[in-house]
Specification:
The chain has 151 residues and is of the alpha/beta class. The chain has four helices and eight strands, in the order αβαβααββββββ. The relative contact order is 0.21.
Length: 151
């Protein structure tokens, strides 16, 4: 996956006009940990302090600050949510924060990433999401699906 994303030029891309850059990794802990080691900017990885810009988007009123205000391994997972919300934040362990995102309704622009990568076998779950566009020619050979976050 590292070589695939590097070949797509993702590591070298500057932030877009909205300031979004890098990759958000869904459902794959190893990718979220290894991509930063090869120079790919990743929104969710091992974070020594909470990323305030991300949490302002995901928790604007700070109601769940106690859940994520720490050193953390940040993971994004897909999970259908009830109609009143598009995400759920939890901390199943002291050093881990998981954000469960509704596959059809979550606005992926909130993550601050230009790209979303996930295991290819789960890619169909994002087919109805209007904030993403699948990039079909990148990643499939290594079991990954790459999506471009829409403007």
């Amino acid at each position: 996956l590292n070589d695939t994303l590097a070949a797509a030029g993702i590591a070298q891309q500057q932030p877009d006009s909205a300031g979004r850059r890098g990759v958000a990794v869904l459902g794959e802990r190893n990718w979220a940990m290894t991509l930063p080691a090869v120079g790919v900017p990743v929104v969710n990885s091992l974070l020594y302090y909470p990323q305030s810009s991300l949490w302002r988007q995901l928790d604007p009123d700070g109601a769940q600050r106690a859940v994520y205000n720490r050193y953390q391994r940040l993971m994004f997972e897909l999970e259908e949510q009830p109609p009143e919300r598009t995400r759920r934040i939890e901390s199943p362990r002291l050093d881990e924060v998981r954000v469960h995102l509704d596959p059809a309704r979550f606005d992926f622009r909130l993550l601050g990433a230009r790209w979303v990568v996930m295991p290819v076998e789960q890619a169909q779950r994002l087919a109805a999401n209007a904030s993403l566009e699948r990039v079909p020619e990148v990643g499939a050979a290594v079991g990954a699906a790459l999506f471009r976050v829409q403007h």
